[in-house]
Write a structure and sequence with these properties.
about 250 residues; alpha/beta; Rossmann fold; seven-stranded parallel beta sheet; about 15% strand; binds nicotinamide-adenine-dinucleotide; Sc_DH/Rdtase_CS; SDR family oxidoreductase
C-alpha cells in the first residue's frame, strides 16, 4: 500500500513550481490531490498531465487572498471527498522592491497573498480537521522568514509572519490532533525564481551563498512536504524545516 493511499490532500499554488511538484509527489504516493491555483491555464495543463499519468487529482481555480473564494473551495472539496487530511499551504508571490520606494498597494498585495491567504486557507481547513479528529498542515515559509534579504521587505515580512503563524497554530491545534509545520526553502529553481533572476545572477548567488554549490529543485521541497505529512513525522509540530543547500549555515 502506498504511503498516502486514501488521503485527501489540498495543495494551493499547485499549477507550477513547488506546488506542482508537491501535488505530483502526494498523488504518486496514492493520495487524491485537490489542486488549487489562481492561474486557470497552468492549473488545467498541470491537472491534465497528472491525470494522464494515472494520478487522482482534481482542480479548483482559487485566489487564496479572497476569503469568500477560500470558503467556497474548502467547503466544496470537503463535500466532495468527505475529509481533508493534509494541507500543503503553498501559494505565494515574490518580486524585488526597495524598501524606500515600496508602494503601499504592493506591500498590501504581498501580505494579502502570502500571509492573509495562508491564514484563510489554514483556518478553514483546520476547522474541518478538528471536526474529523485530526490532520496535518504544512505552511510554505522561506529562509526569508528567518533572515532578511535586501529588496524583499514585503516578502520577508510575509514569510516571517508565516513562521510565527505556524508555531501559534501548532500550539492551539495540537490537542485536536492537528500537526502544523512550515517549510523554509532557500533558492529553488521555479518559474517564479526564473522570472526574478537572470542565469548570471543565479550563478553568482550560488557561488556566494550556497555551500552545496547548486540551487534546489521543486522536488527537493516536495519530499519535505511528504515527510512532514507522513507518520515518520508523527511527533513533529511547530517546526520549520530549512531546505536551502546549507545557505543559513553561514
Ligand atoms: N522558488 C523559491 O526559491 C522559493 C523559496 C522559498 C519559498 N518559496 C515559496 O514557495 C511557494 C511557491 O513558489 P514557487 O517558486 O513554486 O512559485 P511559482 O510562481 O513558480 O508557483 C506559484 C504558484 O502559485 C500560484 N499563485 C500565485 N498567487 C496565487 C493566489 N493568490 N492564489 C492561488 N494561487 C496563487 C501561481 O499561479 C503559481 O502557479 C511560494 O509561497 C514562495 O514564496 C519559493
Amino acid at each position: 500500500m502506498k504511503r498516502f493511499s486514501g488521503r485527501i490532500v489540498l495543495v494551493t499554488g499547485a499549477g507550477q513550481g513547488i506546488g506542482l511538484a508537491t501535488a505530483e509527489r502526494f498523488a504518486a504516493e496514492g493520495a487524491h490531490v485537490a489542486m488549487a491555483d489562481i492561474n486557470q491555464s497552468v492549473l488545467q495543463q498541470a491537472v491534465e498531465r497528472l491525470n494522464a499519468a494515472g494520478y487522482s487529482v482534481s482542480s479548483r481555480v482559487l485566489d487564496v487572498s479572497e476569503a469568500e473564494q477560500v470558503d467556497d473551495a474548502v467547503r466544496s472539496i470537503h463535500q466532495e471527498h468527505g475529509a481533508i487530511h493534509i494541507l500543503a499551504n503553498n501559494a505565494g508571490i515574490a518580486w524585488q522592491e526597495p524598501f524606500l520606494d515600496m508602494k503601499d498597494d504592493n506591500w498590501k498585495r504581498m501580505l494579502d497573498v502570502n500571509l492573509n491567504g495562508m491564514f484563510y486557507v489554514a483556518q478553514r481547513v483546520a476547522r474541518i480537521m478538528k471536526e474529523q479528529g485530526g490532520g496535518c498542515i504544512i505552511n510554505m515559509a522561506s529562509t526569508n522568514g528567518l533572515a532578511g534579504e535586501v529588496n524583499y521587505a514585503h516578502y520577508n515580512a510575509s514569510k516571517g509572519g508565516v513562521v510565527l503563524l505556524t508555531k501559534t497554530m501548532a500550539l492551539e491545534l495540537g490537542r485536536s490532533g492537528i500537526r502544523v509545520n512550515a517549510v523554509c526553502p532557500g533558492y529553488i529553481q521555479t518559474p517564479l525564481s526564473e522570472s526574478i533572476d537572470s542565469p548570471e545572477t543565479v550563478r553568482r548567488y550560488i557561488e556566494r551563498n550556497i555551500p552545496l554549490g547548486k540551487v534546489g529543485k521543486p522536488e527537493n521541497v516536495a519530499g519535505v512536504f511528504a515527510f512532514l505529512a507522513s507518520d515518520d513525522a508523527a511527533f513533529i509540530t511547530g517546526e520549520c524545516i530549512v531546505v536551502d543547500g546549507g545557505q543559513l549555515a553561514y
